[in-house]
Design goal:
One of its GO terms (molecular function) is DNA binding. Keywords: DNA-binding, Transcription, Transcription regulation. It comes from Streptomyces griseoviridis. With 213 residues, the chain is of the alpha/beta class. It has two domains: 10-127, 3-Layer(aba) Sandwich (Rossmann fold); 136-210, Orthogonal Bundle (Arc Repressor Mutant, subunit A), CATH 1.10.10.10. The chain contains nine helices and five strands. The protein has a five-stranded parallel beta sheet with strand order 2-1-3-4-5, sandwiched between helices.
Length: 213
Amino acid sequence: MTPHTTIRPIKALVRAPDPLTRSAISSHLDATPAIEVVSEERPEPADVAVVVADRMTVEVTSLLRRIKNTLRIPIVLIPSEIDRADLFTAVECQVVAVLPRVAATSERIEEAVRTAAAGGGALPAPLLGELLRQIERMQREVLSPHGLHTSGLTPREIDVLRLMSEGLDTAEIADKMCLSERAVKRVIFGVTRRLNLRNRPHAVAYALRSGVI
């Protein structure tokens, strides 16, 4: 007999500027079998935060940063309006899905919560295009002049990590790159320390996830 497996519901924290909006969103999400809304008064560990806002004010940005720094969970943002300058700030605050309030039907909010909990993201096409343009501009104007990639890695660090991922040891990497073994170790130490990575495999995994190797 196959044992019964219970799937834990996604726990969502809902924040809104008024009780009526919060109640409406919470009621719908709570009625969904796979989602459970956690109490705002006595917050439990949550998987996703849903934040409704008129616009990206200082108070809203502070709330997003607080959720990012204390709860460390992805955020679904439902703004009445959001402009280009606010978009990058939102993404920096761990907002993974932006759902304009005018298009925020119950079904779309539910879908955004599921997507965020699964590690995905959702941005309207115009916002996604603007985000990509901002990233490209940051790479061109800020990172490239200092020899950095959007991953936070320098070209030399990327080369060392690429050779590590191919199974080469320190001596072999040094030979391939015409460096001393001490220089290779210094590069690896610099990467792990700067990016708070545990060890060499963790550094290689970071580079793979960043798409640079």
